[in-house]
Amino acid sequence: MFDYYGGMPIDNLLPTVRDLTITSDATGREVYETTKILMGLRNVVDHQLAVHAGALDRLGMARQTGGKTRALLTEMGAAPTAADRWLRIAAALTTLERVAAYSGDGVFSSEHVDALVRGMAHIEKRSPEPLSEVSRIEHQLALIAQAFAGATPRQVLDTARSIGNQIADDQGGVPAGEDRTINEWTSTPTDDGRLEVSANLDIVIGEKLVSAIESLAGKRPEPDGSEDARSTGQRRADALEMILDAAARAAESGVTDLVAAPKTHLNLTVPADTPDAAALQWLGPISQTLAKTLSCDATVTAIIVDGEKVPLDMGHPQRLFTHHQRRALIVRDQCCVKCGAAAGYTQCHHVRHWADGGPTDLDNGCLLCTSCHAQIHASGWDIVMGSDRHPWLLPPVEQDPNRTPIPAYNRRTMHLDDIAA
After folding, report:
1. What is the rounded distance in angstroms from the CA atom of residue 311 to the CA atom of residue 269?
2. In which domain of life is the source organism classified (predicted)?
3. 408 and 393 Cβ atoms separated by less than 8 Å
4. Sheet harboring 266-271: ordered strands across?
5. What letter would DSSP give residue 186?
């Protein structure tokens, strides 16, 4: 039995969409509008896939052959992560009415819907007492509003974590990210002689691990001087080996506490107006309780920032940016402001050149990777500091006659669809 949409059987939709073509005389606007329609269709289809995956699970289709619905979906061609996402969404739609309504209308992608579902699950888990219906609706609307504002799924989850941290602080609970009792590390040898590693770590250990690996995972030239041929994943794996080698050397020399190498340092950002919204550089929001604990740790740098997440008053008049100024720029810019290259591969750039009288302070500095740094100095690109105390890029006239300002890479977010608005 088929459902019908506008008189057309659903089994006719596939060939209709499959036969779409982009003609040689198609305009950019036409392709753009069609793409928007396809994205909305994709959102609706993903919602229906979640609903139908839930129905398959409820009707016990997989259990008839002794299997699980997730395995059945993957046998049908779904990626395992997609199957997990559909089942997770399906299980939550009956209790999250606001999320279910927007999901069914195709307003949000399934990744965003999943972030809303997971975010609400996190908030509920961190509350010692069951949430009231009013609180459930309030938290749903808070996360939905952020998604409408253009937040990524990760940012939606970060907001949910902040809410969960606040609930845990207010009611005496321990945020999941800070609960060391549920830490896990497993390693499984594979048939081809390799090792698969899986870990679920609290935020402090996770931050230390990521900081240590990223500090050693930078690019290095090949012996012939050519660019590093390793992928990001390969560089991080090599960094892990360097850490293990350092541990082995320390043990052989009788050093048992690894005080020398590798050095792991954490950045803790504390908003001046909302100190309970403290966050670590790599893994994000933490509770106020943990923030107070970390503030006593000599390996943690606490950086006070204003409402625009700009570090307060850390400038100095010398030509080169100091180590502390660079750390502050990393907190604000997070990556190369032009292309998004990781902070470890960037240099500190004077927005107004030092030779022209530009000061060496945070309001005249930004992060640029080597190639973008050279391009800024040698091409028609310019950088200006906005009234929000963040860098903005001005493209060359040849690329944009109006030279419309472009925000720094870490501040470019998805824009709300006109129909969704």
Report:
1. 9
2. Bacteria
3. yes
4. 284-285, 279-280, 266-271, 300-305
5. E
As a whole number of angstroms, the distance between CA 60 and CA 7 comes to 31
Place of tokens 């006070």: 304
SS3 at position 188 = strand
For the whole model, what pTM was predicted?
0.53
| Distance between CA atoms of residues 142 and 167, nearest Å | 14
Please, which residues bridge with residue 271 across strands?
A: 305
Long-range contacts from 326-331, C-beta under 8 angstroms, 24+ separation: 327/267, 327/301, 327/303, 328/303, 328/362, 329/362, 329/365, 329/366, 329/367, 330/267, 330/281, 330/367, 331/267, 331/269, 331/281, 331/303, 331/305
* Both structure tokens of 114: 């999943």
Supply 289's token pair: 């309780």
The residues near 81 (Cβ < 8 Å, ≥ 6 apart) are: none
Query: What is the enclosing helix (H) or strand (E) of 303?
Result: strand 300-305
CB under 8 Å to 341, separation ≥6 — which residues?
A: 335, 369, 372
CA 416 to chain centre: 18
**Where do the domains of the chain lie?**
23-173, 182-252, 323-411
**176-215 pLDDT tens trace:** 777 777 788 888 877 777 888 888 888 888 888 998 898 8
pLDDT tens, position by position, 358-368: 888 888 899 98
Cβ atoms of 247 and 260 within 8 Å: the answer is: no
Question: Could you tell me the fold of the domain covering 323-411?
Answer: DNA Binding (I), subunit A (1.10.30)
Residue linked to tokens 């230390």: 208
